[in-house]
Each structure stands twice: as structure tokens, then as C-alpha cells.
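Dear colleague,

Following up on Tuesday's group meeting, I ran the structure prediction for the two-component complex that the binding team flagged. I've pasted the input sequences exactly as they went in, so you can double-check that nothing got truncated or mislabelled along the way. The C-alpha cells for the whole assembly follow below. Feel free to forward this to whoever is handling the docking comparison.

Inputs:
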Amino acid sequence: MSVTVESIRGFWEDYKRSKIGLVGLAFLVILVAVAVAFPLLGDEEIIRYWYGDQTYFQDYPRAVPPCWAAGILGDREPTKTVVVRWDTDPERLPSLLYLERSEGGGLERYVITAVFPIEGDEIPEDLYFAMNISYSVAEPPVMVEEIRIERPDGVVVSVRPTVIEIALGATRQRFVINEIALEMPGGGERYLVEVRAEEAKPQGPLAAIVKIDTRPASISDIFLGFPEKSLERAEINVNLRSLTQTIATKTVNALQALRLFQNQLKVELVSADEVVVEAGIAGLARALYNAYFLEDFYAPFRGEEARVLDGEYRVSIVLVGRGLEVSMEPLKVVVKGSCYGLMGTDANGRDLWQALLYGTRWALIVGLLTSAITVVAGSFYGIAAGYMGGLVDEVLLRIAQIVYSLPVLPFLILLSALIKPSIWVIIILIVLFSWPGIAFVTRSMALQIKSEPYVEAAIASGAGTLRILVFYIFPQVLPYMFASMALSVPSAVIAEASLSFLNLGDPNLVTWGKILYDAQNAQAALKGYWWWVIPPGLAIAVVGMTFIFIGNALDAILNPKLKR
Amino acid sequence: MASLVRFVLTKVVNAAITLAVTLLLISAIFSVYTVVEKYSAVREAYILALRALETQYAYNPELLEEKRQQLWENLLKQNGLTGNFTFDVINWTKILLIRNITFDFGTTKYSYIGGTNDVGEILLIALKNTAILFLTATLITFMIGIILGFQMARRPGSLLDRAISVFGMISWSMPTWWVAIIMLLIFSFYLDLFPSQAMYVYYELNNLPPDMGFFERLIAEAKIWAYYMTLPVATIVLVSFGGAAYLIRNIVLGVLQEDFVMTARARGLPERRVIYGHVLRASSPPIVTYLALSIVGAFGGAIITEAVFGWPGMGLIYWVAIQQFDAPVLVASTWVLTVAFIVTILILDFIYSLLDPRVRVG
């Protein structure tokens, strides 16, 4: 069968008639395009870090669904994740994290502002920003005047850390307490925690207590370990969740300590409802965190669901000091939302969409290479047995039957576990167990072909066995093998995925089977992480289907006997 | 009759050769692995002990050399090695061959199922459970496959025929164990109908009160089995019945075109009797052959499926042995599985020979 333009055109005419074949071909084109164009479609850096340094993924929320799935997940829209980093987005970052300077009352005042764009209904897992900061002050300490958060609706949550020093006889005690206020857009304030520190009349045995002073807290009171005088370019990570936790802990602890001096000082936790007071530190931290986001921030305490306001949140830290100088380089601004990207993330925060795209490459390589080698080797084995006949045939057939009747997967598992193979060795292992089926078919074909006149003519003209096998019989058999080639792709892909699923695959490659192994390890199915377990398996099935469709269409053309 | 004996004998000899080759292969592979491991262990121990030796005998280089030699030989002897790699491999292959033939696999330091450390016992329990699950699933698959396949063959090109054919293609391209994960997601996580792990089935069975009546107990046990087995069985059936129906359809379609069917119809037999009397009889040998082949195909997927469901069978043993890298258990289970597998195929071949009159009468 010589290949001509005419015969290819005729073949294509036949192929076009098979609807299923066309669907398969369309899928194949898409799959190959994805595999080849991955550097354009995806992010190769993510794949490089996939099994490497996991801190690369620390800014992404863990095990969150894709953002488009909002409708499936219920009526609450998940909050989008925003990661703006200096190394990837240097143009946008300065508009989200910046430093301003002002003066007043003989003090220098620096305001570090971070802007968090929030879109969605759920309270984000976390908000944080990172920067390199340097400061120095003429007259220590550097003080934190205010930490304020401006919400999109104009409400401002203001935390003013205040130091109260008290003299008790000869000993002095120092407390840092945070005043927490909500400033309403129309004016007016509502206190979450108000410090009413005024001198009361000395009474009883504690008569010696005298309130001495209140002033803004120093930087080391709020950011643990930061020197009060100067700092040379250190990285600081401000995390809203831990910041609220710190503020709440300090406030409540200070309140407890101050209660000892109730008669002398009036310190009150005002207006924060009993729930917050009763729930203690955790309650205050939660109320404060909620106050940043929710219109009615007591709703979660009542067991109700509350929606987050959409828009930009501004977090400002106001530093003051005499002769203060501050410089800042922004590093990143992160909103850790409750959804991410097109396919969500896994338990390490890795973007599953990237792995899904990238996996196409290895699925196709494994599938195509394995089936091509299997078919070529198997059909060569088969025609050799069939053509040579006699004892050779008998022995070759017996060997093929032995391999054919082994349970493939247990053997693959055993071998992979013992030799820890690379992807290329896995391909060879799969070939080793899958060639006999092809060999049986081609052997019976060779039995017919060998009595054809042109083969006999070739023998008569002195052609060697190898020559006859390669040039006379093999080309005859090959076209019929294209269908088998396509049809053996799915089992090869599934075999590789199965090994990867058992963590016996190539340890350095990101494949669909490996994603599913990670999912199984994290018990993704039992936790309902559908975005982690469904797509990779569907992808395997799509590759399989593509080749089954193509194979069936080819089979109908090449083996017309089976046409019905 | 003579041809039947010859047919069965050939199959038995074939199976025996296959088993022998497999046995040799497994033993040799594992022997190489073991010897390599042992040598590296010896080398490690040698390097560790050598430091102490060097400081101790630093004053006398000749004595040091002698002690060094002694240490190396002692370590080799302790690990049952001779120092000649090829010889050791052959020696170990022999030991492993004997162990495998006698099914005496020794004990493992890890715990698997059944609260025993005897590898043979563990594998016996596991094999039994795998057989229960796999046979149930295969039987159900074939019942559905035969019913659907015959319906499809009677009306080729009908909606049912096309739908099941496409479904068969789709289900063939899915890994069974992935479908298992999805089943867990739907029926265990979202609907909470079935357990996520099946290994507690025996625990529950043992927890039944001892003073139950026979029928009460029967119903209670059936309930427990159904509760734990439904999902694994449903998964295997779901993945394989489409393909089974499609293949049986093709076999039956071939038989339907034969002359004897036309004759039967011409004789005025009702269609039911033509189909279930004549056609089923004639197509059963290839269906049995296909059954054997499909066991080959479905088996691998099924053992990983077991691991997903935590079904206490061979699959779970594999999974646990891989996690702990318990090589002896891996080898023993591969061998036991191969034996069970080949014996099953042999039995099916025997059934085939009984069904096919050409083999029986010759």
C-alpha cells in the first residue's frame, strides 16, 4: 500500500463521515495546542516550584474553590484572592502600598497606607502587606499614634494604642491599652473599647495610686521586637488577623490588670455588647476583625451570616516622633480570599489550573509514545513469529502468552516500587506488559500475507528474512495498526496515572495522577474539595475519549468488515 | 473427549509455565533488590565501625589492616552474604524461590489487617476480601452486560444501542479509582449515605450481639455487607458494564447473522426462544473468553479502587506496603495475586471448553 496524495484524500473523505471521529480529532487538536503552548497559556514558574520550595505558595489561600463556582456553592459569593507582588507587579504595587509624610504639633508624622481591593461576600481568610522599612528618630521612642482602617462605606475603625502609667507607692506600672472606635461617615463616634482614664478620689488602702500620664504607645509595644530608636531596612509583615489578635490580647489583658485599680481609674469596655465581653480575647479579636468588614459586625456572634462590603479598604499605620524619618519599599499586598483562579487551589495553596494545563503535556507524551512503541514492537514481534513459523513461532507465541496472562498493574506496581523509575522508564515498563495483544493480531495477518505471490517472489529473488519483514510485510500490517495505536493510548495514560496515584511515578513531574495522589493524601474527597479531584480525572477521561473516538473512526475505515 | 482432555491439559501446562516464569522473575527481581540493599547496609555499618577501629589500632597499620578485613567479613556473614555479588543473587533467588513455592513468606514488622504479622495469613484474608468484592462486581457487571448487550444487538442503531456504546467508550477511558473518589465525594461527603472507609466491616460484624436468631443475624449481616460494599461494587460495575454490554452486543450481532438463527426463525420459533435458546448458547463461549479478558483488564483498576475505599483486600495491602516501603510484602502479594489470577483464568478456560462443543467433541 503506497501512500499517495490521492489515497490520503480518499481516506480523509471516509474519515469526515464519522461524527465521533471528527469530535475526537477536534479534541486532539485542542490537547496538542495546550501541551505545546503551555508557556504562553500558563505559568512555568509555578510548575517549577510545584514540588520545590512551598513558601512560594504561601500568599495563596489553601484548598479554596475556583471563583466562577460561586453559583454552585450557594448564594454567598466567595471573596477573590488578590496577590500583588513587587517581583511580578511593580507598576501596580506603589498605588496599593505607599508612605505619606505630614507635620503637626512639632512632631513628624508618617502614614503607611495599604489598599486592599475586596470583591465578594465572605470575610477574607487574611489581609496582609509586606514592606522593607527603615526609620530613625531624634528623640525616642517612635510612637504609633493610630492604626486606622477605612472601609468602603466610609466608616473608619480606629485603634489608638495608649500608654497609661500609674504610680503605686514607689512602684510605677505601665499599661498599654487600645482605644478602639468606629467613626461614622456622617460624623460621630461609637466606641468598641473606650479608655476613660480619669483620676478618681483616692480611697481605702490603695489610696496611694495616682494616675500619671497617658500618651501614644511606642512602636515596640505594638510590633514586638522593633527597636524604639532606629531600624535599618528590615522586612515587616503586617497581617491583619494577627494584628487584631495582638490588639485584642493587649486590650483585654490590660483591662484585667486595670480592674485592680477600678476605684482610681475608670476603664471601660463600652458598647461592645456583652457577647464580646463574655467571649474574652477571642471575642474582641473577632469583633474587631468583623468590624473591619461587616456592616453589622455582631451578626456572626448571633450566628447569622453577614456579607462583606465590596470595595477598597485602606489600612493606615500612623507613626509619630520628634525628628522622625521613615523610608519604605513596598513588597506585597495580599488579600487571601475564599476562592482562587479558574480551578481553585490545593491544600498547599498551589494553583490547580496550572497543573491541569501542564499535565496535558505528559499525558500526551506518555500516551502517544507508549502506544507507538507498543504497536511497532508488538507488530514486529507478531509478524516475525507468523512469518518464520515452526518452532520459532511456537516459542515466540508461548512467551507472548505468558506476558499476556500476567496481571499488569501489580507487576507495574512492584517494579516501580523497587526501581523508582523516571517517566521514560515507566513508558518502557508499560510497553513491556502491553505488546502481546498487538502481536497476536499481526501474527495472524502475517500468516496470510506470507503466502501472497509478491512475498514469494521476493523470497525467490533472494531477499533475506529481515528485508522481507521490514519492507514487504510490515508496511502491509502498519495501516491496520493505526487504529490499535489510537485505542491503546487510554490504557497507557491510565496506567501511568495509576502509578502516579500510588506515588510511584516520576517524582519530579507534575502529572494528573500526582495531583490526584496529593488530593487523596489530603482526603480531598472526604472534605468536599471537588475542584481538586474532579478536573484531573476528567482530563484523563478526555484524553482517553479523544483517542477512543479517533481509534473507532479509523477502525471502521481500515477494517471495513466491522462496518455495520 | 480426548480433545477436551488435550485442550485442558494444554491450558494447564501453559498456566504452569506462566507461573514458573513469573516465579523466577519475581524471585530474581527481588533477590537483586535485597542483595543490593544488604550490601549498602553492610557498607554503611562498615564505614561507621571503621572510624573506631582506625583510632583504636592507629599504632599498628598491619594489625589495623587485619582487623579491617575481619570487620568486613563479619559484617558480610552477619547479613548472609559471601562477597561475590552474582553468587549472592543466585543464592537469594534460590531462597526466595523456595519461600514463594511453599507460600512461606515469614513475618512483617508492620501491621496490616486481621491483627496478625504473618504475611501469608494477611494475604489470605486480603485475597478472600478481594475475591468477595471483585466476584460480586463482575457477576453484576455481566448480568447487566448480557441483558443490555442482547437488547442492543436486537435493535442495532437504536437510541439504546448508541447511548450505551458511547457510554461504554466514555467509561472505558476513566480510571476506576478516580470514579471511586468521585463516588466517595457524592455519596459519602455530600449525601452521607455510605461510609468513607470500608475497613471496619469485620469490626461491625464481630460487634453483632451473639444471641441473635439465625434469620435476624442473616439480615443484620446482609445489612452490614450492603452498607460497606455498595459503593465499591457500584463503582466497579459503573465503570465496566458499558464496555461489557458493547462487546457482548458485538458478539451477539455476529451470531445473529449465522444461518442457524435464520433456520430457527424459519421454523417459526418465538423470538424469545431464538434469542435465549439458540443465540445465547452459541455466543456463550466467546462471552466467557471475554469475561476472562475483562478480568485481566479490570483487575488492576479494582485493586487501586480497593485502596481508595479502604476495602481490606489486596489493593489496601499494596497501598499500605508502598507507603511503608515493605518490599517483602509487595513481592509476596504480587506472587499470590498472580497465582490467584492465573488459576481464575484457568477455571474460565475450563468452563469455556465445556461450553464450546467444538472443543468437547473435537
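Chain A touches chain B through 51 residues (CB under 8 Å).

Cheers,
M.
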